[in-house]
Amino acid sequence: MNILVTGSNGQLGNEMRVLSASHPRHTYFFTDVTETADTQVLDITDREAVSAFVGANKIDLIVNCAAYTNVDKAEDDEATAMKINAEALAVLGSQGVKVIHISTDYVFSGEEHVPCRETDKAAPRTAYGRTKYEGEKMLLAGCEEAVIIRTAWLYSSFGNNFVKTMIRLGREKEQLGVVFDQIGTPTYAADLAAAIFTVIESPVWHPGIYHFTNEGVCSWYDFTIAIHDLAGIRNCRVLPILSEEYQYKTPRPHYSVLDKSKFKKTFGVEIPHWYEALGRCVKSLSC
């Protein structure tokens, strides 16, 4: 197949590029809004540009890793977030090819007490969550063959993320306060990329909505303790604090665990535990 990967300069896009070397029978076109040595420029909100690119390169499948992910900034500029997270999905879904799209746990309220299933009612509480949910609906309206994968707490050896920040702060500071009343599952972008390739390589195409994170649950406090332990950081004291003490500009989900049963059953896979996955990422950072 000829596969277009959008948002290729981000965490997941970079992991897709790395893993593509293990799937050489496909031809890949890596794009982003800015050009690099490894990516071409493509504005996914530009219908004419996308149609021309898909046609010229005979694209069979689009993997959309592009997104407006700054939760706080989205509150102040929901129009831009809507353009990238939603309106662009109407563009991608109108190309007459299969689409794999990455969505988020933020489509839910975060007030649940059990892991969210794909059939649970969406109830986003933020501009980011609203725009991502609108994107899901726009994609499904235009592309019956779409696969939507919701994920959460994404990190990688690429880009800026919580793992890298906690390693840096752990080496700079003697003490950190990290919230303990937000529960979720850290997801290594390399494992999410592997899940995407599982969908791509499946002998049967299974359209629909799926959930994927690593296994297990923890708080941001627990996650930080694990990061420091695996990175060998011993001289920074990590203290548990309440969300209200951190004073978030935008509400964060208190419980955003996703039920992955559908993905595991459909594709016959086992998913690594978050601690084991974190160990692989930290090792790749040479900490």
Descriptive report:
The chain is α/β, with parallel strands linked by helices. It is built from eleven helices and 13 strands. The protein has a single domain (2-161, 186-215, 257-272), classed as NAD(P)-binding Rossmann-like Domain (Rossmann fold). Helix 8 (220-231) crosses helix 11 (274-284). The protein is globular. The chain starts with a strand and ends with a helix. The model has no long low-confidence stretch (mean pLDDT 96).
Provide a compact summary of the structure:
With 287 residues, the protein is an alpha/beta fold.
Strand % is 15-25%
Low-confidence stretches: none
Count of DSSP H/I helices:
11
Helicity, in percent?
40-55%
Could you say what the CATH architecture is?
3-Layer(aba) Sandwich
CATH superfamily: NAD(P)-binding Rossmann-like Domain
Number of domains: 1
Give the helices and strands as they follow along the chain: EHEEHEHHEHEEHEEEHEEHEHHH
- What does the overall shape look like? globular
In round numbers, the mean pLDDT is 96
Instruction: Tell me the major beta sheet.
Output: 7 strands, parallel
Strand order of the largest sheet: 3-2-1-4-5-6-11
Total number of beta strands: 13
What class, by secondary structure content? Answer: alpha/beta
Examine the coordinates and then state which fold CATH places here, giving the name of the CATH topology.
Answer: Rossmann fold
